[in-house]
Design brief:
By secondary structure, the protein is α+β, with helices and mostly antiparallel strands. The protein is 23% helix and 22% strand. The protein is built from 14 helices and 24 strands. The chain has a ten-stranded mixed β-sheet with strand order 7-6-5-4-8-1-9-10-2-11, sandwiched between helices. Strands 17, 19, 20, 21, 22 and 24 form a six-stranded antiparallel β-sheet that branches. A hairpin with a 2-residue loop joins strand 14 and strand 15. Helix 5 runs parallel beside helix 7.
């Protein structure tokens, strides 16, 4: 009798819990790697067709001032995931494996606490295997794709990663060789995730790799047929086809949500990850055939591109779609950037973001101030840093500095979106105010760590797999040996750091083999600048220069930028530097000349690298002397 009386109560409780769960908003965020601001047809592209994305833009809200968290892959993803700007994040360099810190909170973390299924599909970029930054340690139930950026360059690797384990792709050899297109696998797994979690709230994060990397798409993909006969280079045609392929797959996800009757309860975001690149340039298209940063009608350009903090490195295509909740046909000039995504998703889902984030929710802009019950807040300022570059946005003003030893530049984007008129001398009060904001925004980076780099390094090599061209090492540039003292006489006296686990030893800096290189240690945490290398030439010479060759394996980690050069007759005593060298991103020999100095020992003190990372690396050194 008592059991019968309690049945209605239990049924009511079950229905109440079920209803509450069903009411939670699902979130799909699709982030296309390196897709340029003007490379979709809803933004006016005259070369690339994106009808399904265009449809979302018409039926939702598109943003003219959605900005990336950084100008390159890993740092921008860290800003996106953590709600912090790049003066506070743990991942600020683009080496490929720099990890989030242990227990660092991400969007996945806060949603998982609310009972969400959390899945990621694509390129992670915030910690390689064996590190504190892998996605399954940061709130994601599953992540399928690539943990490392270099691995992600290939669409035909022998394997991709699922929760730190290798997911084999039969028929693939690496590079462009194979039969199992990885991106198809990744998108199919994302759709499978949605189906499997249709009865519970979910967060489906798709930081997909196209159109970045090797420009590959199967010849039987419907998108290739749209471009295969265009009078462009094959890479330019492949690139366009990859964007249209992504467009089709965006449509497939929208259709799946409708099929599952989840469309009215799911918000979809679509954006790029950082500014576009000037690919496929020629005399008629100096900023690239597809004009990632050039307005297709007016010709007005964003200065710069991916990799720098001018507008071309930060502007991304961005839109949101939620039928019945987001008023269709809106074009918003609300200024937001990736740190704002975490608090926005938190507000939409009822999750609680950490108290130390920099982002502001833009839900009032999405749904309307009346629907939300409050006005849209605005940032006091936005902040970016990458390598030696710094940028601040305050209202319409943009502050930029290319390096600490360079002058600040100030632009009024309301009248000069191309950043051509430097107002630093004319608006000194604003300049000083924004310089102060830049100073207060920066905190030293505290990165995560590796316990083991073996699998991470394996993943980086998997880009090419067995297809690494036999001539790839052979294609490596040779050191210019003109006037160089024979390297066979050199001996390593001391090196401040070397990566012994990967056999990237100090002696490899002068072993005569450009396919090997010295690299400073990066595990369990990277040794930081300054780095020292001291070489014994075997006897005293009159030394007048140095030849330097950066690593030849396709990476730039550790490639030297600022370096002081010393010469001495004693290994332990050096005076003032004979030269202060500044090197650049180049695979060819770079030369340094200085006043003739007698000595037997050469000492390098390396204080920075080309990407702003903490490392140092050298493929070959040659000392010029007699």
């Amino acid at each position: 009798m008592k059991t019968s009386a309690l049945l209605p109560f239990f049924l009511w409780m079950l229905l109440t819990v079920s209803s509450a769960t069903a009411a939670k908003t699902n979130v799909v965020y699709i982030m296309a790697d390196e897709l340029g601001y003007y490379e979709t047809s809803y933004m006016g592209s005259k070369t690339i067709q994106t009808p399904r994305i265009d449809q979302l833009a018409r039926q939702g809200i598109q943003f003219t001032q959605g900005l990336a968290g950084s100008a390159v892959c890993a740092p921008t993803r860290c800003c996106f995931l953590t709600g912090k700007h790049s003066g506070h994040t743990s991942v600020r360099v683009n080496g490929g494996g720099t990890p989030l810190r242990a227990k660092e909170v991400t969007i996945g973390t806060i949603l998982k606490k609310e009972g969400y299924a959390t899945g990621g599909f694509g390129k992670w970029g915030c910690g390689g295997r064996g590190s504190t930054g892998v996605p399954e340690k940061h709130g994601f139930d599953t992540f399928v794709g690539y943990y490392d950026q270099v691995h992600a360059h290939s669409y035909y690797p022998k394997y991709i990663i699922e929760n730190s384990k290798e997911l084999l792709l039969k028929g693939n050899e690496g590079g462009s060789t194979g039969t199992n297109y990885s991106h198809y696998v990744i998108v199919n797994r994302a759709k499978q995730f949605i189906r499997e979690n249709k009865d519970k709230p979910f967060f489906c994060y798709l930081p997909i790799t196209p159109p970045h990397g090797i420009f590959d798409i199967p010849d039987n993909d419907p998108a290739w047929k749209l471009y295969k006969d265009k009078p462009w280079s094959e890479p330019a045609r492949r690139y366009a086809a990859m964007v249209s392929m992504v467009d089709r797959q965006v449509g497939e996800i929208v259709d799946l949500l409708k099929e599952l009757k989840l469309d009215k309860n799911t918000i979809i975001f679509f954006s790029g990850d950082n500014g576009g690149n000037d690919y496929f340039t020629d005399k008629d298209h100096p900023r690239g055939l597809h004009g990632a940063n050039v307005h297709p009608t007016t010709g007005v350009e964003f200065r710069g591109k991916k990799g720098n903090l001018y507008e071309g490195g930060l502007r991304i295509p961005a839109l949101a779609y939620w039928p019945g909740k987001i008023k269709p046909g809106q074009v918003s000039d609300h200024l937001w950037y990736f740190p704002d995504v975490m608090p926005t998703i938190a507000e939409l889902t009822g999750a609680t973001p950490p108290g130390d984030i920099d982002g502001l929710s833009f839900v009032p802009e999405l749904l309307g101030a009346d629907a939300v019950g409050r006005k849209q807040p605005r940032h006091k300022y936005l902040y970016w840093e990458i390598g030696s570059q710094t940028a601040v946005r305050m209202n319409q003003y943009k502050l930029y500095r290319g390096a600490p030893n360079r002058p600040w530049e100030l632009y009024d984007l309301a009248t000069d979106v191309s950043e051509t008129r430097n107002l630093a001398d004319a608006r000194t009060e604003i300049l000083e105010q924004m310089k102060q904001l830049a100073a207060e925004a920066h905190q030293p980076a505290v990165e995560g760590t590796f316990t083991d780099t073996v699998n991470h390094e394996k993943d980086r090599q998997a880009k090419w797999g067995s297809t690494r061209p036999a001539g790839r090492p052979g294609r490596a540039n040779q050191l210019d040996m003109k006037g160089v003292i024979a390297q066979k006489n050199y001996k390593l006296v001391r090196v401040s750091s070397e990566s012994r686990g990967n056999q990237r030893l100090g002696r490899h800096a002068f072993d005569g083999k450009p396919t090997t290189h010295w690299h400073t240690s990066f595990a369990p945490k990277p040794d930081k600048h300054p780095h020292e290398l001291v070489i014994d030439l075997g006897k005293e010479y009159t030394i007048s220069g140095l030849h330097y060759l950066a690593r030849q394996d396709g990476g730039w980690n550790g490639a030297l930028k600022d370096c002081d050069i010393y010469v001495s007759k004693q290994a332990d005593t050096f005076g003032d530097p004979v030269a202060k060298a500044v090197f650049h991103k180049s695979r060819r020999t770079q030369h340094v000349k200085f006043t003739k100095t007698s000595g037997r020992y050469l000492r390098l003190i390396i204080t920075s690298e080309v990407n702003g990372g903490p490392w140092a690396s050298i493929s070959e050194l040659g000392i010029v002397g007699k």
